[in-house]
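PROTOCOL LOG
Step 1. Enter all chains and additional molecules of the complex.
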Amino acid sequence: MPTHDDDHGHAMATAQDDSPPGYYEIMETAVRELLVERTLIGPGEIRRQIEVLDSRTPALGAKVVGRARVDPDFRKRLLANGRTACEEEFGISFYDDTELIVLENTEKVHNLIVCTLCSCYPRPVLGLPPDWYKAKAYRARAVKEPRAVLTEFGTIIPDDVEIRVSDSTAAVRFLVLPRRPEGTENFSEEQLASLVTRDAMIGVVPVQIPTRSLS
Amino acid sequence: MTRTEDLVKRLPNDIGGLEAERIQQTDHELEPWEKRCHALADVLDFHKIINTEEKRRGVESLGAEMVGKLTYYERWIVTFANILFQKAILTPDELAEKMEEVAARHSKSSTQ
Amino acid sequence: MSKTSRGASKPSIHAVKPFGEQPSFKAGDSIKISIRYPVGHYRVPHYIRGKRGVVEAVIERAFVNNEEEGFGHNAGSLGYYYRVAIPLTELWPGYAGSSKDGLRIEVFETWLERN
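Step 2. Run joint prediction.
Step 3. Record the structure below.
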């Protein structure tokens, strides 16, 4: 059912500035409008998909991790099939039709995710990836020198801990289930979730308890 | 001497293991058009007008120079245009004319 | 539909599966990544070609071959991807990290050979 879109679907940006659209923005607008005119895509579809994208943030992934920490049955299901567990527990749909494997960090294994060929990333549960994840340096080096890469993020992994780098090349996406920090034994599920950052679920940093500055 | 076949055999995005510099931990908030472009990609994939793998192939086809110099979403939108032409969904002239029309809207409104 | 009487042997079901419906490899299989150089689109990066590893898992659900999907092949014959484990020492001569460190990567059936 088409929504009542403003201006036939073309004034979609909240134009906060009056600078003229660049070449590529003009191209994007033109392609979109032509496709809508040809009824190949519906007038409200882009707007709706933007809402979908805006709703997928690292907070979702953190919620998944928080639940896994307090609910052993959920954790088991999550590790068995990440997509099904997220869909059933939280209604997180996998709009890109990818599968999800959740990789658990332990005292013996540290997981790290990358997409050397492009920018595959668990978008349904983490949102859009940061620029550095999509750029050459990370993609080229994560599979070759993961320990050096982790050091650049301030993360030192002892030599007796195995590093597993997962390179996404197909329809499977990965989410790291980072280790629960010490001192969180009495934390609630929400508190545990609030500690978990996007970068911890990529695997480049651990989950940390924020230090409070003593003033 | 570099053999040209290496250009054919190795895609510009196949960089795993190549030498690279320190990671610049940069990020930027998506411009509205970039977010619309991402949404467009998802919608094109749902309808299988351009599936995600076709988009990847299309970006590779831009060649090393464009892959290196265009930004992430710039690569996407040029790729969509190319593929839509290849599939005879749009013609280059149709897109060019529409782009002129879109560009003219802004200059028209800015003179009001 | 056949009914069997008690004591009679059940008729065997002979339902031959098409190519791709049955995974060719299973967890634990030693494999080698093929070496070939397709023109244009591929999803098996150069850095793993010819390398040896072990199948860690069959990815469950069969998929269209993504290298064909890249040319608009959206449906039809399906096959399996395998999550393959390859030690970093196998990939990079003189790898400086732990010898336990490894890569995990999904590879489509058409790129795997028994090792």
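Step 4. Note key features.
Chain B has a mean pLDDT of 94.
The helical segments of chain B are 5-9, 32-46, 52-61, 64-69, 72-86, 92-110.
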